Amino acid sequence: NYVNWIPVSSSNLSAVAYDDSTHTLYIEFHSSGVYAYFDVPPSVFRGLLTAPSHGSYHAAHIKHNYRYRRL
User: CA 47, CA 65: separation in Å to the nearest integer?
Assistant: First the structure.
């Protein structure tokens, strides 16, 4: 399933992608690879993209709130 990766300027995250059809958020971290987060609403993805700090937004709103697995 093809997703469009968006590079982000962050000390922790290098790129993000979102699959609208499955509500899966993909995050590539500089140090730990790619993770998929499941059942993430589109509004949370938009919030991540527009946050002043992508890493802080991930820690506060995504990291412990959604099922995830390392790919």
Answer: 14
Could you identify the residue written with the tokens 């949370």?
Answer: 44
Task: Determine the residue type at 35.
Answer: Y
pTM: 0.94
Do you know the residue count of the chain? 71
Is there a contact between 69 and 36 (Cβ–Cβ < 8 Å)?
Answer: yes
For the segment 5-36, what is each residue's pLDDT rounded down to a tens digit? 999 999 999 999 999 999 999 999 999 999 99
Q: Which alpha helices (H) appear in 1-71, and where do they start and end?
A: 42-50, 54-57
Q: Kindly tell me the sign of the dihedral angle through the C-alpha atoms of 40, 43, 46, 50.
A: negative
Question: Hey, what are 5's tokens?
Answer: 């990766």
Strands 68-70 and 13-19: unpaired
